[in-house]
Design brief:
The chain is α/β, with parallel strands linked by helices and about 160 residues long. Helix content is about 45%, strand content about 20%. The chain has one domain: Maf protein (Alpha-Beta Complex). It has helices at about 5-15, 30-35, 50-60, 65-70, 75-90, 135-155, and strands at about 20, 45-50, 90-100, 110-120, 120-130. A hairpin with a 2-residue loop joins strand 4 (about 110-120) and strand 5.
């Protein structure tokens, strides 16, 4: 059984819903989730918030936080997951932010990625340092997000 199918099965069994806020992954997570037939029963949708302004406008990320820490930090990943969960009315919010390259930014190297997960009882952030070309980093970030979600569903709920 594919990881996305396992995620879907657990969400259906527990009656939970999911929404995503994707920056570095640009919709890859949502694509993978919606490849599973019947995913509309548990997947509320996704916001691809690639620009700084989209993060502020669509997910209510505070501008002072972005000015102080940049958009590639654990706090923004957490706020993105919380923001999409609240905006979409889902039980779980999953987010990604990071640098796919080809150049670093905000004093961080290419491959710096943060994956966030928000549920009613907790918010988690996983920091990653990925290697490879742009596409490989995006795909690895997607895999890491799905891994975090599955382990949360299996271990914490």
């Amino acid at each position: 059984m594919k990881r996305e199918e396992m995620i879907g099965r657990i969400l259906r069994e527990k009656g939970l819903t999911l929404a995503c806020a994707e920056s570095i992954t640009g919709g890859l997570i949502s694509d993978r989730i919606t490849d599973i037939p019947g995913s509309s029963k548990y997947f509320k949708g996704s916001i691809v918030c690639y620009s700084v302004q989209a993060k502020i406008d669509l997910l209510s990320i505070p501008e002072p936080l972005i000015r102080e820490r940049g958009v590639i930090c654990p706090e923004v990943a957490a706020r993105m997951a919380e923001g999409v969960r609240e905006r979409m009315g889902s039980d779980i919010g999953l987010s990604t932010t990071g640098l796919a390259g080809p150049e670093g930014s905000e004093g961080k190297p290419v491959g710096t990625v943060f994956v966030g997960l928000s549920a009613s009882n907790s918010t988690l952030v996983k920091a990653l340092s990925l290697k490879g070309e742009r596409r490989a980093i995006k795909e690895a970030a997607c895999e890491a997000a799905l891994d975090l979600l599955l382990s949360f569903l299996e271990e914490r709920l």
